[in-house]
Amino acid sequence: MTKKALVIGGGIAGPVTAMALQRAGIDSEVFEAYERGSEGVGAFLTLAVNGLEALRVLDLHDLVCDLGMDSSLMRMSNGRGKPLGTLTQPSRTLKRADLYQVLRDEAVRRGARVHYGRRLVDASIADGRVRADFADGTSAEGDLLIGADGLRSRTRTIIDPGAPRAQHVGLLNTGGFARGVTVPGETGTSYFIFGKRCFFGYLIHPDGEVWWFANPPSPKEPTQEELAAITPARWRAELLELFKDDAGPMADIIRATDHIIPGWNTYDFPTVPRWFNERMVIVGDAAHATSPSAGQGASMAIEDAVVLATCLRDVPGVHDAFAAYERLRRGRVERVVKQGRRNGSGKAPGALGAFVRDLGMPMVMRQIAKRDLMAWIHDYRISWDAPVAAPVR
Ligand SMILES: Cc1cc2nc3c(=O)[nH]c(=O)nc-3n(C[C@H](O)[C@H](O)[C@H](O)COP(=O)(O)OP(=O)(O)OC[C@H]3O[C@@H](n4cnc5c(N)ncnc54)[C@H](O)[C@@H]3O)c2cc1C
């Protein structure tokens, strides 16, 4: 019997889940909290090769590769300009808003129903069906509910009211798009600079625009109100101050940016104990947010969506299908979250930590490249045709 899924969240995992379910013969509707017009703001992200390959399973790879830019080479250096290492790994960097848009548009083109302005407030199970209630007073019913509702997932707390909160990783995020500035480097490369007081990354788009981000350290987690109170002018001044003793083009890039994206906190989720109940399950950041330092959050969300669809296709019974999905995904995603923490810890290490990092990192980077130590992340592939076995009871 064809099942009907209610997918909560129209970010990355939501539309990809809808398209994967469709391929598995399962009908779905997507409910996104925000109105369509409120997209278009925000930064950029990098899709690693494993995420790109997961998109390929659904024939979405080419769509994404029309956006943004290639970013397959990474060059690391410190605030004195000393090279710390290079890594090569196929990847694509694109604006978050463009990725959201293209995924949603393609889901709709393939027949998915995407509703906007529908914020999930509650969900309940009765007679083997699930009912979702939205803030606008409307509701929807289906056979299962998939929470692709991100870091602050409401679905997660419906499944487990005691679910842990995301943890602040001690870094803020800000960035922007600079025009009319000439910086060292070439397109296709991400430049990462471990400044004395702040981490900085930039890429040069083929059209000359410089895409950048910075991670000012902040051991204490600022509230949303505290962050909102920081004006763009203050961000600019604080960033210029943070980079004033560093070699590199940071100050030029910051000055050439008309609109500095207001800063936000960085979180991760080392573990979320419960991913599902009888009829509801979480995917993407809702289940396992990783710090942006892993460069894997979007890729993990895409992988989840594809794997979950294969489980629902092959494993009889919704609950057992969810269990199979968790069995296939939990180990991998929690390992990625740990890796993200490790990557992030080198961004604000203190004087001694910076000394050790600068000493050890070139060798570590050489070992990573030589022994392909990140292959477990990047070489992961999902076979759509391989049947998923039911969990052993
Ligand atoms: C600064 C930054 C840089 C990053 N860089 C990278 C990177 O380089 N590489 C990478 O792979 N990942 C990166 N990530 C992570 C990546 O953006 C996320 O992991 C990814 O967006 C997760 O997708 P998702 O669909 O699970 O959640 P989201 O993209 O957050 O989507 C969740 C959606 O659910 C909606 N929603 C929330 N609550 C409700 C509700 N109650 N009802 C209905 N809808 C709701 C939201 O409005 C949103 O549209 C970065 C993240 C940040 C913040």
From TrEMBL:
<dbReference type="InterPro" id="IPR036188">
    <property type="entry name" value="FAD/NAD-bd_sf"/>
</dbReference>
<dbReference type="Pfam" id="PF01494">
    <property type="entry name" value="FAD_binding_3"/>
</dbReference>
<dbReference type="GO" id="GO:0071949">
    <property type="term" value="F:FAD binding"/>
</dbReference>
<keyword id="KW-0560">Oxidoreductase</keyword>
<dbReference type="InterPro" id="IPR002938">
    <property type="entry name" value="FAD-bd"/>
</dbReference>
<dbReference type="GO" id="GO:0004497">
    <property type="term" value="F:monooxygenase activity"/>
</dbReference>
<dbReference type="InterPro" id="IPR050493">
    <property type="entry name" value="FAD-dep_Monooxygenase_BioMet"/>
</dbReference>
<protein>
    <submittedName>
        <fullName>FAD-dependent oxidoreductase</fullName>
    </submittedName>
</protein>
<keyword id="KW-0503">Monooxygenase</keyword>
<feature type="domain" description="FAD-binding">
    <location>
        <begin position="4"/>
        <end position="338"/>
    </location>
</feature>
